[in-house]
Design goal:
heterodimer, A: 2 domains, globular, B: 245 residues, MetI-like fold
């Protein structure tokens, strides 16, 4: 098929129009929600699109008290940080061995982890629920650490291994000659050199853990152990018509993640697209 | 607990609600592939030039990807709300009252409303993937096309898209495997309702397992989802002749 050499050239103004429409569709729902969380119920009913005539913090106080936001925040921070710490620690150790040593079945082991990238995670919800129920591991402060660590190891190992493989062997060789043992080489040479990739996986894991919902829904019942997404979903399900408080809750929960995103955009984008671009 | 052999699977394959969820799941896959990929590609091609503010557009584009699906679902529930929602309120304010709908409450409409959100949520991811691929095209290629008098339109179709074709295929595979994972969004937005109209396989599995406490049956659905996803992805990869897993 021949494509005609049409004289139709896309001019810059048209490009800006298309991009602006895209940008508005992309963020306006979020902005609309955040702005309206500052309006009283009466004002929300009549003035949805404007800036609040009077900034009201009542919604935020309601959300904080009814949905127990303090507890939700605390739980989310604990689970996200702890799971991220262990995932990256275990992942870095595994990646070092996978990147540096040829052992029997090393490809099989790597393939095993890579396979984890493909598994539709929600197909494991029921088996994991049954398993953890039988082991009496449901509704514990550390319950969510198990699935979070297990299911985020694949991407962590994937990113770290490909980074570590690129290191020249000579640095480590000279360390061996100087008498550095295996773990010494890991802690003092490989880990510091991996800092950019480590930053990526730390941020990535934190976001995934902070946002995770399905496992929290299945494995946690206890009000005092709920994470933010779970608490928000329950809150919205219970107080379906309290729009103001819902919006205030949403606004509070996205502030940390948006700040995080604006600070570490490069790492986040790199990490989240790593699986695709590397192939 | 007694061993029931394949009884759960037999029951599963006979359940029309289950096949309805498979159908909806396939619609999610199709909407993602034919929604996310073309939109992302168009925006990426438009952004891939010296443009003031292109960084800002990228930042905005990727933003929904980092937000929790729960946040997105509740936000869109408010947007779709028939009484106070952004969409109906907007339609009323420009005098198009007759277009207002019960977006999530109408069984004929609910799935499409949900599909829009699914597409919306992940366009940014593919936008960034395509932009990375576009930036890898050597400048000389595009410049020589320009010197030969090719219009931007021709360059895009004959050079740019063929050169990033592999990335587009990878994106399609990602899109398929990603949309088979759809659970959180529909669970929070509609929980499969009204009248099963938005139910996908994972929602069906969840409700069978945790509402009806039928763990064996739920496990059978899990196995089905697992095999279905795996087979679909292997077939697509074979079709696209992609290497690796």
């Amino acid at each position: 098929m021949r494509i005609r050499n049409t004289k139709l050239t896309i001019t810059t103004p048209i490009i800006y129009v298309i991009l602006t429409i895209y940008a508005i569709v992309n963020v306006y729902p979020i902005i609309w929600m955040a702005i309206n969380s500052f309006k009283s119920e009466q004002e929300f009913a009549v003035n949805q699109f404007g800036i609040p005539k009077k900034f009201v913090l009542e919604n935020f106080m309601n959300a904080w008290e009814i949905a127990n936001f303090g507890v939700l925040f605390k739980n989310s921070i604990f689970v996200s940080l702890a799971a991220t710490f262990f995932t990256v620690l275990i992942g870095a150790l595994a990646s070092y061995f996978l990147a540096r040593f040829e052992f029997k079945f090393s490809n099989v082991v790597y393939g095993f982890f890579a396979f984890g990238l493909l598994i539709p995670i929600h197909s494991t919800l029921v088996p994991i629920f049954i398993l953890m129920k039988n082991l009496d591991l449901l509704n514990k402060p550390y319950t969510l650490l198990f699935p979070y660590i297990a299911f985020h190891l694949p991407i962590t190992i994937f990113v770290l291994t490909s980074f570590m493989k690129a290191f020249p062997k000579s640095i480590e060789e000279s360390a061996v000659i100087d008498g550095a043992g295996l773990f010494r080489r890991f802690w003092s040479i490989v880990l510091p050199m991996s800092r950019p990739a480590l930053a990526t996986v730390i941020i990535l894991n934190f976001i995934y853990n902070w946002n995770e919902f399905a496992f929290a829904l299945v494995l946690i019942n206890d009000q005092n152990l709920q994470t933010l997404p779970l608490g928000l979903a329950n809150f919205a399900g219970q107080f379906t018509t309290n729009y103001g408080a819902q919006m205030a809750g949403l606004t509070m929960s996205i502030i940390p993640i948006i700040v995080f995103y604006l600070l570490f955009e490069k790492n986040i984008v790199k990490g989240m697209t790593a699986g695709a671009v590397k192939e | 607990m007694t061993f029931v052999g394949l009884a759960n699977f037999v029951e599963l394959l006979k359940d029309p609600d289950f096949w309805n969820s498979v159908k909806n799941n396939i619609l999610v896959v199709l909407a993602s592939v034919f929604g996310q990929v073309p939109i992302a590609l168009l925006i990426a091609i438009l952004l891939n030039r010296k443009l003031k503010g292109s960084r800002l557009f990228r930042t905005i584009g990727f933003l929904p990807v980092v937000l929790s699906t729960v946040v997105i679902s509740i936000t869109w529930n408010l947007v779709y709300n028939s009484k106070y929602g952004l969409i109906n309120e907007f339609l009323r304010s420009i005098g198009l009252d007759f277009l207002t709908q019960n977006w999530l409450g109408d069984p004929d409409l609910a799935l499409y409303s949900v599909l829009v959100v699914i597409v919306w949520q992940f366009v940014g991811l593919y936008l960034i993937i395509f932009l990375a691929a576009l930036q890898n095209i050597p400048n000389e290629v595009l410049e020589s096309a320009k010197i030969d008098g090719a219009s931007e339109w021709v360059t895009t179709w004959k050079i740019t898209i063929p050169m990033i074709w592999d990335t587009i295929l990878v994106a399609i595979v990602l899109c398929i495997s990603g949309s088979l994972k759809t659970f959180d969004l529909i669970y929070v937005m509609t929980n499969g309702g009204p009248a099963h109209s938005t139910e996908v396989m994972a929602i069906y599995m969840f409700n069978e397992t945790f509402k009806n406490f039928n763990y064996g049956y739920g496990s059978a659905v899990s196995v089905f989802i697992f095999l279905f996803s795996l087979v679909l992805i292997v077939i697509v990869r074979k079709l696209f002749k992609l290497k690796g897993i």
